[in-house]
Amino acid sequence: MSEALVQRDIPDAPAPGESYLTAGTGLASWLLTTDHKRIALLYMAAITFFFFLGGAGAVAMRIELFTPQADLLSDDAYNRAFTFHGVLMVWFFLLPSIPNILGNFLLPLMIGAQDLAFPRLNLLSWYIFITAGGLAIYTLLAGGVDTGWTFYTPLSTAFANGHVLAAAAAVFIAGFSTIATAVNFIATVHLLRAPGMTWFRLPLFVWAIYATSIVMVLATPVLAMVLLLIFAERAFGIPIFDPLRGGDPILFQHLFWFYSHPAVYIMVLPSFGVISELIACYARRRVFGYSFMVYAILWIALVGFLVWGHHMFVSGQSMLANLAFSFLSFVVAVPSAIKVFNWTATLYRGQIIFDAPMIYALGFVGLFTIGGLTGLFLASIPVDVHVTDTYFVVAHFHYIMVGGAVSALYGGLAFWWPKITGRLYPEGWARFAAVMMFFGFSFTFFPMFVMGFLGMPRRYHVYVPEFQVWHVLASSGAVVLAAAYLLPMGYFAWSLVWGKRATANPWEATGLEWQTASPPPAENFATPPVVTQAPYDYHPEHSGPPAIERAAQRPQGHQP
């Protein structure tokens, strides 16, 4: 793949200096755009829709669980509700949210490129994603699925009711969008970096997106294969997982979790990149141990492929396999601990500014640390056997995947919103929403650790009355959390009309994305940047942009 081939795929740009938002205002100009920034906004609209639609399933479950009896949903309806919630939230929100929204918008800007390597492939990936999402919504309208988001066999192949094949097809199609986006990101980082942008001058957000893209390319085909095997057995009766005919249902778990545990890092690694950018900016310090942070990101991406068996301690594995996977699960926690330590060291003696993005970042560190520490409990075989299939597991993965990833997404949106839209939002409301999200999340999910340890099984909507107090706490916290999720939608929308106009660099940050106008021109940079220093050039006597050179003088009157 040559650089010439990459450049030929970039369409002609609009008039120099014209904002990407005003470079064509008709609906067709958006639906046929190849501008990575506009495609990021298309993803934002779609992913936000799926987020709140999947959240509606969670609302139904929390209302049902307010009392010990089945007051709202039948057994079958409850199964379909949590399946739909899981499918939408995992594959149509958590996995694509930060890479497809913030990654799409920021990656070329952060490395000084005009666009992604393959703009037309980028647009195609959005259409594939929309097609998959439409098929997922069809499964809800047609009656839903009752297998759970994991599609475990033999339930999904022989006993499940509903549109299993349609739901599996939706996830299968979404995988093509994931792979296309990942290939585009990898090619862009390799081929389109600005002069002087060496590998160890890349921002940590770029490293995180790059490592995530590698995981996407390597892991997603495994999910595609296992979904095809479900289709083969359910549609054509081929005995792949049916033990009565020589199949092996445990084989499904091995294949599914070989994909799904690395998929956790598809959700979390981009969050690490976002949080690194926020903490460095609002502590006004270089990221402590930059090279260690890079190696920790790559370590997580590699070792994450070796720990899938800790999901199967009670599935009939040999004790030797259980011990090996337990050890590796402790090992993969080391780079995550390095990142938390380095963030803390970056904050130490920093000139900390408690704006909304920083509050989101600190909330992320707290929630992720709780999720990571409880992950060590689940890596321990005796504890895992005790809490398997209880609410302890539900709380753990929500702390990691939802508490962590959503806090990072909202923090990233707050940080880069002036760059995306050219407008400033009301800071007071944003701080309030950030604090509310942390406490609302904790009130929702921390009680689940207690009830899970006491033996409350997950996926049950009828339970003994002793657990009601914990469910009432969780459901009450969910109301606060829902308000925290909705509030930013209000003040972001308000800012589009009444918000003050943002300067090119309102936070005095150091990344290349802040060295162009807000919002950026269609071609990203009026003149190509040349990088001369390492990232995060913050120090007490100079909090401004890094030392970069321009290939030519800026046009007169151009906003830097």
From TrEMBL:
This is Cytochrome c oxidase subunit I. One of its GO terms (cellular component) is membrane. It is a multi-pass membrane protein. One of its GO terms (molecular function) is heme binding. Belongs to the heme-copper respiratory oxidase family. The chain crosses the membrane at residues 40-61, 81-102, 123-145, 165-192, 204-231, 251-275, 287-308, 320-338, 359-381, 393-417, 429-450, 470-494. Keywords: Electron transport, Heme, Iron, Membrane, Metal-binding, Respiratory chain, Transmembrane, Transmembrane helix, Transport. It comes from the Bacteria. PANTHER family: CYTOCHROME C OXIDASE SUBUNIT 1. The keyword Transmembrane applies. The keyword Nucleotide-binding does not apply. Its main location: membrane. GO terms for biological process: aerobic respiration; electron transport coupled proton transport; respiratory electron transport chain. Residues 518-560 are annotated as: Disordered.
